[in-house]
Structure formats: C-alpha cells, structure tokens
Inverse folding.
C-alpha cells in the first residue's frame, strides 16, 4: 500500500503545552512507516531556526524516508486550519497517487500500530467524537483515501471554523455522512492531558532529552499499567440522553420567554408612542 503521511502544525513548541517532533519520531517510525510498503512525507510547519529546521529534514533522510514536499513558514496569527490546508494542497499539487492519506500533528504519539486501529481505508476516518453537544470531532489525525482529498480541502474552506474540531458538518456534506467512520466507538477529549484513550496521546516534551521519559510513559500504556476507562453501561447512556433532552427543553423554554418579553416590550413601546401622539 502506497501511503502519504502529511504533517501539519508546529514541529517544536515551548511552554506547558509544548512539543518536540524529534522526541517522538521513533514512535512514528515503528507504528506508521514500518506498517506500509511505501510512505512519502509532506509537511507544512512553522520555522524555529535554520539549524532545527535542518535537523527535521536530516532525520527523515537518515531513516530513508522520502520527503516529497515541505514548507517552513514564518508564524503569524493564522487559523489552526491554515496548516492543514497548506499541507494538503502540497499533496494535491504533487500529482502523485496514493491508496491512503494520513494527516496528523507532529506531536502526536500513537499507542498502537496504525494497522491495529479500526480504520476503514475506503472511508473518511476521524479518530473519535468529542463528548460535547453537537457533532464535535477530534482534530488530532485524519485518515482517508485520495478521492476525498479535494472534498476535504473544500470542506475546510467553507465557513472556516476556529479549529478542526468543528469541521464535521462541512466534511459530511462534501463526502457524504455514509462515508464517515470513527476509529474509536467511544467519545474522548482531544486534549489527552485530561482524559486518556488507548489510541493516541499528545507529546508534551520540549526537548530531545525528554525522550526516555516519553518512552517510559508509552511502555506503561502499552502494558496497560495506566487506568483504562470502562465502557459506559446502558443505564449511563440512557441517563446521558435524558440529560441532553432536559437541557434542550430548558433552552427552548428560555428562548420562548425571551421572545415573549421582546413582543411585550414592543407592545409597550407602541402604546407609549400612541399616548404621546394624543
């Protein structure tokens, strides 16, 4: 299978929510690149320094991975979706044909080989839904065949959302809701600091010296030494649905009250105007 691995976003970032791509490259090598016959890399990222930029390119070269196209852009206050669009347009303009496209963040760590995940190579795959009102989805990684590349770029361009979490309605319109698959059947938060899942985690290591610590964390998760969240029971699902219905009904009542107050205020204004005219 010929696969395009398309990276986007920051390859290095400081602060509490920082990340460093070199710290989790081995994870991608073992859990992505070794799973397929041929992998080509495309990436759009933000420049840190010439030295660090060259390190990223050398890393792929050392491991015999072909970087077809890349761009180090100077960071300005762009939308989070900007890098997704730019990285996918590189692939679109390359003229290459692929069986599968994997679009993911640089700082994403896989907790199991990608071929052990329940993705459908003929559908557009989100990792999981977010536990929220409406259809909010994870923006950590997308997997899809090449026929959905142009529709996906179009869907991001229409009514641009703040992040990839809110693109489901547009994607469903472009590719068809029957062509959408969720790799995890449960809902999780994309911020893996707060809630763990057994598919991926975000690497928060800021330097290459933190690799050993990161590897220990991955080992623990692989050996199932961390807390695994139990599957929700039928009773919990029923209660959650009831709570959703109750909250929706409360919202409807509030909207009705507000509209009623507006009508009453209008009537009062009319009466006052009539009195003044008399």
């Amino acid at each position: 299978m010929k696969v395009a691995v398309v990276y986007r976003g920051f390859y290095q970032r400081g602060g509490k929510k920082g990340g460093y791509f070199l710290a989790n490259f081995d994870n991608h090598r073992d859990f992505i690149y070794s799973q397929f016959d041929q992998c080509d890399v495309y990436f759009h990222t933000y420049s840190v320094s010439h030295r660090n930029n060259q390190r990223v390119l050398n890393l792929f070269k050392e491991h015999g991975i072909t970087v077809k196209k890349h761009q180090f852009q100077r960071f300005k206050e762009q939308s989070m979706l900007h890098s997704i669009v730019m990285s996918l347009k590189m692939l679109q303009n390359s003229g290459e044909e692929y069986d599968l496209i994997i679009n993911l963040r640089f700082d994403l760590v896989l907790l199991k080989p990608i071929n052990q995940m329940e993705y459908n190579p003929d559908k557009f795959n989100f990792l999981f839904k977010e536990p929220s009102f409406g259809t909010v989805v994870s923006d950590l990684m997308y997997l899809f065949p090449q026929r959905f590349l142009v529709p996906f770029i179009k869907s991001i361009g229409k009514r641009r959302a703040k992040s990839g979490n809110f693109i489901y309605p547009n994607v469903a319109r472009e590719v068809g809701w029957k062509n959408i698959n969720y790799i995890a059947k449960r809902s999780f938060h994309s911020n893996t600091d707060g809630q763990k899942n057994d598919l991926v985690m975000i690497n928060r290591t800021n330097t290459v010296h933190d690799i050993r610590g990161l590897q220990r964390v991955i080992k623990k998760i692989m050996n199932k030494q961390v807390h695994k969240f139990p599957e929700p029971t039928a009773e919990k699902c029923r209660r959650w649905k009831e709570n959703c219905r109750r909250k929706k009904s409360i919202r409807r009542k509030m909207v009705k009250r507000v509209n009623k107050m507006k009508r009453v205020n209008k009537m009062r204004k009319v009466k006052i105007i009539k009195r003044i005219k008399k």
User: Anything to note?
Assistant: The mean pLDDT is 84. The radius of gyration is 23 Å. Residues 2-222 form a domain with the Spore Coat Polysaccharide Biosynthesis Protein SpsA; Chain A fold (CATH 3.90.550.10).
